Prior knowledge:
The complex is a heterotrimer of chains A (251), B (748) and C (179). By secondary structure, chain A is of the alpha+beta class. In chain A, 20% of the residues lie in helices and 14% in strands. Chain A has a single domain (20-244), classed as 2-Layer Sandwich (Alpha-Beta Plaits). Chain A has a four-stranded mixed β-sheet with strand order 6-1-8-7. Chain A has a two-stranded antiparallel ribbon with strand order 2-3. Chain A is globular. Chain B has 748 residues and is of the alpha/beta class. In chain B, helix 5 (160-173) runs parallel beside helix 17 and helix 6 packs across helix 13. Chain C is mostly helical and 179 residues long. Helices cover 47% and strands 1% of the residues of chain C. In chain C, helix 5 (79-86) crosses helix 6 (94-104). The longest helix of chain C is centred in the first third of the chain and has 23 residues, at 13-35. The radius of gyration of chain C is 24 Å and the shape is elongated. Chains in contact: A-B, A-C, B-C.
Amino acid sequence: MGKLTDKLKQYLKPGYYDKFDYHWTMTIDLDRCTGCEACVVACQAENNLPIVGEKRFRERREIKWLRVERYWEGEYPDVKLRFIPMLCQHCDQAPCETPCPVAATYHNQDGLNTQIYNRCIGTRTCAVYCPYEVRYFNWFSYTWDEPLEQQLNPDVTVREKGVMEKCTFCIQRIRQAKDRAKDDGRRRVRDGEVTPACVQSCPAEAMVFGDLNDPESRVAKLAKNARGYKVLEELNTAPSIVYLKKVNPDG
Amino acid sequence: MEKINRRDFLKFIGAGGIGAGAGLLYGESTRKTVELLIPQVVTPEDYSPGIATWYNTVCRLCSAGCGISVRTREGRAKKIEGNPNHPVNQGRLCALGQAGLNALYNPDRIRTPLRRTGDRGNFAPIDWDEALTLLGRRLGNLKIKKQGSSVYLLAGGLRGHIDTLFYTFMQALGSDHYLHYEFTHPAALYAANRMIFNQDILPYYDISNASYVLSFGADYLGTWLSPVHYSLAYGHLRQGRTDQRGKCVQIEPRMSLTGASADEWIACRPGSEGLLAMAMVHVIVNDGLYRGPDRNAWLEATGPYTPEAVAAQADVAADVITRLAHEFIRRQPGLAIGGGSAASNTNATASLAAINVLNYLAGNLNTPGGVIFNPDPVSPASPVARQASYARLQEWIEAMAGGGVDVLITHAVNPVFTLPPAAGFTEALAKVAMVVSLSSFMDETTALADLILPSHTYLESWGDDMPEPGVGFPVATLSQPVVKPLYDTRDAGDIILSLAHQIGGELPVVLPWTRIEDYLKDSWKHIYGQRRITADSGGNFDEFWNAALAAGVWGENITREPLRFDGVAEDRIRALQVPPPAFAGEEKDHPFVLLPYLTQAFHDGRGANLPWLQELPDPLTSIVYGAWVEINPATAKRFGIREGDIVEVQTPSGSLRAPAFLYPAIRPDVIAMPIGQGHSQYGRYARGRGANPLEILSPLVDEASGALAWSATRAGIRKTGERAPLIKTDGVTRTLGRQILDDKPAHT
Amino acid sequence: MSISVRDALLTFKTPALIGLVGVTGFIAGYLIDMTIFTDTAPKQPIDFSHRIHVSDNGIPCLHCHNYADTTPAAGVPSVSKCMGCHKTIATDRPEVMKLAGYWENQEPIPWIKVHDVPDFVYFTHKRHVLAGLECQVCHGPVETMDRIARVSTLKMPWCVECHTERKVEHGRDCWTCHK
């Protein structure tokens, strides 16, 4: 009986791993974020996000892997506006991974929530389960007016109609960083060597990315910050993004 | 096994055969088409396939001059990042800068020179030789007849040696008529800095090290002067130090992007910012918080500006004014800056001067965290003298309308869109004998041209830049092409050099270069000669040049003697007064003040042809693909206006229609509209979309600087009864107790 | 009158068998198409023979495919690389004259890609070459080929098999190869 419960307990671990090789994590400091959306355009450029057009926006079929949400508080003239960038949280207990009937999305050994486009059959179940609403479906095969397609990133697939997509923490950059590390002789990727496009562009340096397993990394230290919290934490999704809440001034 | 009858047997054969056939056909139809493996003809020197090559250059999408690194693969530009070497943006980049590839690969670029055929707006292709000969001959003839001064050159925000090239060219032609015009040019700020600080160039606002930023409408995180640098500084001000967190206060009639990040947002009447600043000066001097020797002069100058008097005019409580004044002085180093409505009313210069005085009284000039005067740019001199205010441009418009302009050449400027029609530019343009545009895009001004000599986009061009505002020490950035030119366009510098050779006479003597790259390289010999730190570290000029190209930037962060400031002249103090703002229109018919505002994506409309930016939800409203009119919710309720109702905005100078948006953080007596949409040209992504608030502005001016007072137009609104629901990405914009912004659910 | 479930189902016996035969035929037809009707050695614009260059003349793979150990893309040599030798060597052969024609017109040779993986796959030659794999492991005995032929399926099971056998680090994680 003990052995059986032990065997069952392994399914409680995120992604069934004893430990992650790298545990890619991001911190977003809401006291630094200005809501400028440079990150949104950087992501669009890096990951071949389609230009869906006005009609699709009207139908709420936009595709923005990273969006900046805004929340108003109070009423004029005592009104406040708060920004929060929202992207795939790469939950370690992701609600989207379990219901995929074909395992097109699963948790890999680096703590990332993966999305494999050509395995996806487009049931859109995962999007329904995601509480952060950060999964986007390709309702159409989008095109780029010539010569905009010359800008497309060759390291990222151009998705076709019928597959889900979402933030990948710029897996192409992580892959490249690991490749470079191997070139240098089998060493680990060092802190700061890989930054997703959004993190790299942020003018206020609000986003920090790195390996939580590396205790010396910036992100590991920031994740322990007293202002740190996770969005919708009560849902027990165990997100990999730690937000640092905005400081309320003394007044 | 029972016997199969013949019929069934045939059915099996048939099924099997059809199935096999279907399988075969399916295999054939889903087979990938044959892919070809195309080698290079000659082995490329500058890249290996599959590995990116990076080029450092300058972003030219706004006047900040951030350095960028462009990732190219197999000769195509893939991604723009900030250049980590550049002191302005230090590896970071804004939304507009990131969208620059949409400009390079825009489907609506002008691909060949064009010549007008028939009515204005119709063009036919023409080849370069013919085009250059056509223009060159005309300019040459004018020069010979000593009528070179009827040639006018209007450029947009050029700096560095390309500006010098243009200037030299015009001078050699015999024309003094070379100006820069940008809607965003802070003419009032320059005038205020001259008035109070005796400075001709913009200072370095050290937000990074400040403890307190008192901003009167300056949208420094979004559009003011150098937003990427200030955002970097803001991040540091907030969480970059362990011993303190800086406080930000924003005073403006409508919450800007910066206002959203402020700790305190205070709604004041448009144009009252300067009055508030004067009241704060009054409090500071009156309450003994400033003890300089010129104290009495300040007391006298600000006598009438008591908090109580100003409170009524600005609609900001007197005790708030007093408290802010005390806080500002006590939490030093602190910065007082002004922009937005403070810089675009009829009292703009005076208002910004009063804000400058706050800095003076706080004693933060030339200290970390304060206003640090910049040294002169390394070389060449800053083209401040050529940056035209609206009033100065009016002189040109008059000359044009009077038929005194034979050739008008425009480069990187779109005055038909950015000037209010009341200025009369479009009508005056019709009287110009030959309008030549060097634009890469068919914008509104270019559509009215007679000859279009399309220049390369900035990613295909040579050039350099000395950023303004500077960063406190000499910096020069190099701009180089990151890809081979896509179309039959030319570098603007090469166009000018070709024209110089076409025209002949003294022009090719003064401008002997045939390639812009050579001109630039020779110009940098000045910079090479001015080096101080690295002057003795060896390296000949070629090594210096190659190193600068590779790094994208050269600078010397040397400690210089702090620039002296001897105080404000007594007569200036006594002359300081901030008149109340004047508006076009009467309150009776036009109960609102119309506030056009710059967005971080479109700026003055230049970003509207970039599809990524049209698709970018506005940070404050989440609206895409359109323009809108912001109305206070209580006001909207009074008028019975719902979101999406099309309203007509009427000013004394015109009217437009746009859907309404209920904006929670705007004064009830103010309406606001984003600038940037409402293009009638400019490509498929921009044209026919939304409305342009600049079109209905009345031509009021800030007399002291000549700047257009674009926040001084009153407006009325009228329901039209039609609806055009706005396209937004937002749903409910309240947290409703959900644990989103905090580790504890908030009450909203 | 009632019938049993079994009897009810048996009325569909023949149509079901027909369907089964149809489906089997479909699968068979598809497999035939994938194997017999697929050309693994298409005719190239120039009849370039690896045998002559590698076996007879001893040119190593990386001499022409010089990017294979430094970049993700092995690449095919530029026309100028071929002309490096063939400006003077074997200029009378008809295939070499074809090459010279391309060079004179400054046109690239439109080789037909024999080893191709789909766009959603990230395959890096450098990593595999530096891991010590001989070219022949995947490309077969190229040095004996007069016309280059694909001898491996290049399909995913083939890749995963090797990744599993050689215990490639994270070699079975989808995101290692899928972009």
